[in-house]
Amino acid sequence: MGETESHGGIDMRRKYIGWTAAAIGLLLTGCVAAAPAPPTVVVEEPATVSSPEQDVPDPPSRPITLAFAGDVHFQLQVAALLEGHGSRLGPARRALATADVAMVNLESAITERGEPDPKELEDAWDRYWFRAPASALDFLARSGVDVVSVANNHGADYGPRGLQDTLRAKEAGPLALVGVGRDRRDAFTPHEMTVKGVDIAFLAADASPREGAGSVWSAGPDTPGLAAAHQPRPAHLLRAVRAADPDADVVVVYLHWGEELRPCPTSGQRSLASALVDAGADVVVGSHAHVLLGAGRLRGGYVSYGLGNFVWYHTGQPDTGVLRLRIEDGEVVSDELVPARIGTWGEPWPVSGADRARAIADWRSLRGCAGLAR
Fold this sequence. Notes:
The chain has helices at residues 2-34, 93-97, 135-142, 159-172, 184-187, 235-244, 267-279, 353-365, 367-370, and strands at residues 64-72, 101-106, 109-110, 131-132, 147-149, 176-178, 180-181, 191-195, 198-206, 225-226, 250-256, 283-287, 295-298, 301-304, 309-311, 319-328, 331-342, 348-350. By secondary structure, the chain is an alpha/beta fold. The strands form four sheets. Strands 1, 2, 5, 6, 15, 16, 17 and 18 form an eight-stranded mixed beta sheet that branches.
């Protein structure tokens, strides 16, 4: 009987404990239901307050190489260079094609139509009219050229019709054409491109003595023509450089300027170069004199006063070459001339050995009368 009572006691105790647990559970459940939900705690990263001193600078841009050569045209026997599918320059093209961007001056209207525009020159023997077919641009592109200036004393040789064709080539051609436009604003609008993270703006203008009598030689507010910079301090060109400078890491200005056959810059060239550098130009190069001129640093910029002929129909001034500039963080850090000589058929041929060393030394010596630093 004791065993029976014992089991009954255990059962009663189990029931009591069960009732008690159930009651406590109900009580707790009610408390939990009635209690407000605990607030959600959001842990935020501490705010970072930046200041000009704390800003992380942009990583330095990669070095780039720009290449420049002088006057090009395809007159007389030189026109034969354009014959044949895939034709291009000979060995001299390597100095152009291996650069990140290469630029030359095309001394021609890009047309096969039109009539020669009247020239104002007094000496009839100095009157020349140059033009080239649109295939000349394909030839230059295949030879490694990326940008072409037509702002020169032959860019409008074939009047309004020739200018119309040149503008059509600008829109549809295989490379960038600068220094000509449907109005003044268009003519002074730079070609902009980004190379290895470097923003470059290319401008071109004609500062050589005006030869033509027609309006096409100087683009107006509402009329087509060339980018003309004939004044001592050409306001439109300087304004274009100032406008390009804030957005470009490198501003390049290619000019047609100087005095023919003179190996030292004129006072006008030196004044204009100084004004352009002050306006924000990083590289100022040019041609027109048919001979090489000095090159070097001018305060914060680099100036090459003359690149001579490059692809030309006579060998009267055969010394030429490709100017290559290495640029780091928006500044020219080194320069080199890849010297060449113009051959019978108008092509430039690189020189080597003692001739190369002599040509480079002669070019370096021109820096003295140019008033430029090394």
